[in-house]
Amino acid sequence: MPRAEVGRTAAGIVADALSSSPAAVLGVATGSSPLALYADLVARRADGLDTTGVTLVALDEYLGLSADDPRSYAAYVRSSIAEPLGVPADRVHVPTGSNDDDALAFERTIASLGGVDLQIVGIGRNGHIGFNEPGSERTSRTRIVELAESTRRDNAGPFGGDVDAVPARAITQGLATILSARRIVLLASGEAKADALRAALMGPVTADVPASFLQLHPDVTVVADHEALGTPA
Ligand code: F6R
Q1: What does DSSP say about strands 92-93 and 169-172: parallel, antiparallel, or unpaired?
Q2: What ipTM goes with this model?
């Protein structure tokens, strides 16, 4: 499908899920891939979709940025998802903190919500999902991680292009955490994602390509454009 349809198609999947389950727990990725999806959901809300009963759970957060910092994922979730969808702040959960207790607390939060019904994920050029960089184990849970140099480079835009200004560490849901969502929608757009997407979907299941563990999940939908899939337009 063309790039413009990725967001619309994925939003259709989320909207169908919310129509039948308005109090669903929605796992949200940040980054550029799902922005069109969120914008489309906001448009559907204007057309009558009730998004206000949803609970939002984010995948990850940089360490060292306050929740008020516009480059934080907390700020992204607030301004691009929660506020425009009318989700109150007490039903928005973004991992925060810098130690094992904080990570465990986030796992407990997800458990107390009854788990994630529908998880949206993007994919990094190095095959990461969440901030589970290559080498992450299938059994990993929410924890503090070091970001790969390539991830910091890819994410330098909001930091004025300065790689050194991108936090070197993050807190992220682990692969086991992500895989325990009942349903997963993977979004990928653009040629830069083609190698990672091919390895994730067609290659061996390996910690070298963390997204390949999605092959082990029974309900994953991939929404990708021609460039990411490497198929003719
Ligand atoms: C973001 C996240 C990351 C991104 C991935 C792709 O919460 O967990 O795994 O989904 O880095 O980022 P974009 O969409 O900006 O190419």
Answers
A1: unpaired
A2: 0.99
